[in-house]
Amino acid sequence: MFKRNFWKLTLSFFVVLWALVSLFPIQDRPFVEFAQEKAEAKTAEFAVLIQESSDRVAANPKQYPSVFVALRAIAKERKLDLTQYFPQFPIESSLGNIEKRNTIILDHLLAKSKGKLQLGLDLKGGVAFTLETVDTPESANIGEAEREEKLSKAIEIIGERINGLGVTEPIIRAIGNNRIEVQLPGVNTKDNPDIVKTVQKPARLDFRLVYPFGTPAMLGETPAGYEVLTLEQEVRGQTVSEELYVKRLPAMTGEGVSNAYPVMDEYGRFKINLRFDDAGAQRFADVTREIAGYSRQLVQQTGNPEARARLAIVLDGRLYSAPGVKDEISGGSAEISGSFSQREAVELANVLNNPLDLPLQIKEQYEVGPSLAADSVASGKLAFIIGTALTAGFIILFYTTGGFLAVIAMIINVVIILGVMASIGATLSMPGIAAIVLTIGMSVDSNILIFERMREELKLGKSLTSSLEAGFEKAFSAILDGNLTTLITAGIMIALGTGPVKGFGVTLAIGIFSTMFAALVISRLFLNWAIYGGFMKKFRMFSILENTNYDFLKYARGAFLASWLVVLIGIVTVAIKGEDIYGIDFSGGDQVSLAFEKSVSLADVRKVAAAQGVEDISIAYTKQIGGEAEVLRLTTPFDQAKPLVGALQAAYPDAGFTLESEARIGPSVGAEIRSNAAWAIFWSLVLILVYVAFRFEMGYGIGAVVSTVHDVLLTIGIFVMIGGQFNASMVAAILLIVGYSINDTIVVFDRIREELTLDPTTSLRNVINRSLNLTLSRTIITGGTTFLTAIVLATVAGGEVRDLAITLIIGVVTGTFSSLFIASPVFYWWHKGDRKHVEKGHDVKPTYEWDASSKASQ
């Protein structure tokens, strides 16, 4: 037994070990403590430096907001190489001068001192800054509509820069018509002041001609149309400066660049490779052809065959490199070389891929406290514990020992999911944790499929070992197809989505692979060990709805019409309510800042807001970087902030609330994210139709698509009818329902396909009814686990988690309903109730007994 399971055991061990390593450290450690611990050389001298840095912070917190900043400043003043204290981190001198090596080692220590899985703005808070557009001669003539468009584009670009995978959960929104607010979880500008610079860089890339017939050192007067720029290069660890005449007007801009990415050269130095689109490649060829012509002139004039005219590569007014050009470059690529650290190369490539049209300046920076009150966090944690315990108890109740082993596999599954999320820098918010808890409830579906198949085999009188093998074999196709169709949805979200849509796609894809691994490898390992090892003599299972014989198709037409009538009512309700269905995340609102003499808890503020009928509200205490005074910042729907301020002043007169500022803010979930979510669902449905038609048959694909559309529209309609409002987490909830609905439908269709093959004489109607009855127990148990978890979250937790849970409750009910009365009936009607019509389209036609016997007799 050990030999046959050795690969499963080894693979599982290393995957779980990697996940655990990826999760640690769980919490942040103070930078000072961590740096002193890691210093392995001249520790006493380094301790003195740390103490001196701490003294500077205490004496001048505005100039030195943290020991990190003070230590970097001291090292710069004294030209002190900090890498000497950390010999275990070898940094080659070719990677930069002393200042750059110090930046590399300090950034490394800061990153390693942080916990691997950061908490979101709602649980931990973070840092925020406001960026304001700068008026330039070029922007003076821009109209209001064009300015708004550029501001929206800037918000999108900033989102791409700081949230490439969509899993860091920042808040980025417009304030008024010329400012952008950015809130980042798990970050503080005390330790990382460069984060703002990275976000605000315009990343204007120019390719310019270097004056080929002289330099400032040779000529006294600057040629007309040129300016003097300084090129700094590293030579043997020293910075060498060279002044060049560079043409003011670019021969080409970065608009032709389709992609920029960092690479390492043969000497271990980082550079940025550029790829041009077709038009950019042609323009670059034209520019380099012109410069190559100057090179030939220089060779003729000087007699030096190595003489070259040069192309200046200028980013945001800084000369990065000026390579010589011998011949026309027509390969559609170029490179920016220079003295880059890895971090600088990555950041530069990132901003080049996302250039800003509008120059931005920092208006204000402030720390943001957690937006959820302590009691809300506590109730959320309690809901998650109860929900997870209910899921575990539910599965153990029905499948006893097998259920217990499935729960252990489920826990390992969660560890793997969290480990992968930590490795890609994901941020955990309360809605994100809720989604993981709900995913746990859905992930046990694979085990339920296997157990139900084992139950059927045991009923046929097979041994426990034979039932185990047959159970996994027969459940495999349903698990594979169900997860692959959901993976298609995740892949489309990643490819087409931005922000939370892309983030949900990444998380969903991680969950799919992890769930399949847990079910097919870890659960199989546990069950093999328990059954073949003789520890599990019997597999006791309790069942519900066993041996049923319901005629689902008899009620299908009425159920179909009734549900689509509800969908129609929901659509009408959505149309009537219009923009009122959107919360602050989608529509924007009012933001006020209140000074106070005595703070009031977030929970008490939320109670006053609820009494005023303001349910959709964001509350946080903020403090200017380097300042001491806190303000209470409230974000409400439009025209509800001022009445709320009056209510707070009346409820808490001792607090001394006074209005400091007010502004209108834009949505944090813009029109593009909504559009991307809609397109992601549309293309997911198209690809699911193609996949299911290929793996099954066209009728199955039509049934799957119709039922999924039905579930999404019905869930949205019911949610709006009961007074729900859409916020950012609702995007994830709707996308989660898409995955749940498809998976549920595929399980039923897999059984119909199998029954058509096993029973070649029964009518299509009876095959469908039999398949629905055979999978009914699994449908109810899987739906029940998710339903119970969602009920707990909806009743115990609050805010966005409650809305997320309510949406999932509706989605689970509609998904279960559609797998019985929408998907299968549509498949049945598509084929006009004729099984021969199905068999014509099957990729493998069933073999009948008389066919086999007649062939054998030939």
Account of the protein in words:
With 858 residues, this protein is an alpha+beta fold. 57% of the residues lie in helices and 15% in strands. It has 27 helices and 20 strands. Strands 3-4-2-15-18-19-17-20 form an 8-stranded antiparallel beta sheet. A hairpin with a 3-residue loop joins strand 3 and strand 4 (179-185). Helix 13 packs across helix 19 (671-695), helix 23 (776-796) runs antiparallel to helix 24 (799-821) and helix 24 packs parallel to helix 25. The radius of gyration is 32 Å and the shape is globular. It starts with a helix and ends with a helix. The relative contact order is 0.09. The model is unreliable at 843-858 (pLDDT under 50).
- Low-confidence stretches are 843-858
Total number of helical segments? 27
Radius of gyration: 32 Å
Question: How confident overall, as mean pLDDT?
Answer: 82
By helix and strand content, what is the structural category?
A: alpha+beta
Name the quaternary structure.
single chain
Widest sheet, order of strands: 3-4-2-15-18-19-17-20
- What is the helix fraction of residues, given as a range? 55-70%
Main sheet, how many strands, which sense, barrel?
A: 8 strands, antiparallel
3D shape: globular
**How much strand?**
5-15%
**In angstroms, what separates the terminal alpha carbons?**
45 Å
Question: Can you count the beta strands?
Answer: 20
SSE layout and pairing:
Layout (H helix, E strand, L loop, with lengths): L1 H22 L7 H8 L4 H17 L7 H11 L20 H16 L4 E2 L6 E8 L10 H19 L8 E5 L3 E7 L8 H7 L4 E5 L16 E10 L2 E10 L4 E2 L3 E8 L5 E7 L1 H25 L6 E7 L2 E4 L2 E2 L7 E8 L1 H12 L6 E9 L5 H50 L3 E2 L1 H14 L1 H15 L4 H33 L2 H34 L19 H26 L6 H4 L1 E7 L6 H10 L6 E7 L5 E7 L4 H11 L6 E8 L5 H25 L2 H24 L6 H31 L5 H11 L1 H21 L2 H23 L1 H8 L4 H7 L7 H9 L1
Parallel strand pairs: 1-16
Antiparallel strand pairs: 2-4, 2-15, 3-4, 5-8, 5-11, 6-7, 9-10, 10-14, 11-12, 11-13, 15-18, 17-19, 17-20, 18-19
